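Appendix B, record 7
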Amino acid sequence: MKKILVLLFVSVFSLALSPHATANPFTPEEIFSDLAIDRFIISPDGKYIAYNMPQDNTDIVTVAELATMKATFTFSMGERRFVGSFRWANNKRILLQPAKRLGVNQTLYNISQMQAFNFDGSKNVKLYGYKTKSRGGKDKGLADYFYIENSLRNDPEHIMIVTYETKNATKRLRKLNIYNGRVGPGTRSQVRKASFVTDINGEAIAQWGNSADDTNIFIYKDQKGDWIAMDNADDYHYAYPYQGNSLLLKHDAGDNTYEYVQFDRFTKQSKVLISMKDSQVYPIRNKNKEMIGYRTSKDGKTKRFFFDEQSAEAKFQHLIGKTFPAYSTNISWPTDDFSKRIIRISSDVEPGKQYLYDATKKTKLRLINKRRKTLKRNRFAKMTPIKFEARDGLLIHGYLSKPNGSKGNDPMVVMVHGGPYGVRDRWGYDSEVQFLTSQGYAVLQVNFRGSGGYGEDFEKAGHKQWGLSMQDDITDGTLWAIKNGFADKKRNCIYGASYGGYAALMGAVKEPDLYQCTIGYVGVYDLPLDSKEGDINETSEGRAFTAKTVGNDMSVLMTSSPVHQARKIKAAVMLIHGKLDERVPFEHYENMTEALDKAGHPYESLVKKDEGHGFEKNKNQYELYTKLAKFLEKHLK
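Structure tokens (predicted):
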């Protein structure tokens, strides 16, 4: 098989790595519209394949015979409804949770509903959740939300779901019939906001959550079936079923070091299987949700490790990695006979290709989907991992993308990610980056302290540092790019959305001579207002998180707010906002423009009454990036 795969991909790999040519600027319509198939799932017996494709602000779902790709069932999700959780429950039946796209990255969030249907469209029902009824006629959507916990591979008629009630922070593990929607009373969580660990039969064997004072609690079932509390629970995050009676626990060992510890619930013996410093570890799991290995991603390169390197799964995944050494790869679960699966590859200059792997065919891999297939890959710019020391000595990572044909000293856009906590920029294809580099700008992305992926200490270092050391990290990255000849010191703009919008305006406040322009997109500009308004502050947990990460010292919040420091801004300003924004209410935009008016500072703006926290409609996105490009050209070229 190895020889066949290697021969098959010689031509594919060579083509993908062809030298970049000087590209013409992308239009917003070219780079931000994509009607390619988004996701494929294969039935466990390998006879059917299901997929979804975006179309006119919705998703179209199709089920087809895999051998012929002849459709057996097609339907539309409905306006502003998309495919969220999407899986085969057995050889004939599919479970689908509809989703909304929210935020500046248009992230999918499942709606509290579940639809179930057979491969041919028969027995199509709203199975569970909002606007569904039980046999007794009562509304079954009592939980605020739910998710699938266990597919119960040995039970083709049921799954295990976890339901959550926000009012009392209670979760229940419940068995759901995938044909008639009957749901059992289930197991109630013994800790607040619990996550369950289940065995192959769907029985709860561990729970972790927290107490009212936000202290971690971790409990597990011993040999007698009693629930036992683990000592030092604050040091443990996440658990997975493992071999026999064991759990695999993610352990914070301090000094930005994470471990995975094998813990036997019956003997209470433990041993460290993995130890990783300054890098996030992501689990590789099998169909039974057992962790069989892990992957790391550092500076854009993914490495995979398995507890049994001689297993068939380990050998297969390593072979795919060697076949596509310049790409990130995503490998789906195999069919029951391990003959078929979907392989997705992507990179900084490859938006994504999907291959069907079929061990029964002479040609093992067949290209079945290519995102943005009308765009030539040599028009895309490469993304290079970078690192530098901040002014206090902390090592900061990020990425620099230069326009094709660059000889250095380019005009530069510093693009700041949102979040900010736990979120990070990653190596890979990015439509915004490609749009900006095609216009002739270098793009700098900084994973400032507070960003995810570099350990808990690094993330906590950003707490209560809005406008302070977090902002200094971005400034230090900008100065690094200038010092090393990548950027022209007189042609720099700082741009971001949500928290990134805050940092864009705050950068112009703190460094009035460093940036020639600043662009805030649905940005947080008034920290005292942010501590009270917005959907995060609608719950006690959200308010506690804001107090912990942003702070509640009003004097500090005011000095760190662009609204209260607008007089210091020299850069040209552009502000973008949606009037329906619930995360960062429109009042932030109104307060910022009022402050700029009082300071006598002109600004450009784009406001949409029908958009929220990030523009969702294509026509509005196209207008946004058309105006953004003209603004940049006016102030940087």
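Remarks on this record: The radius of gyration is 25 Å. The chain has a mean pLDDT of 86.
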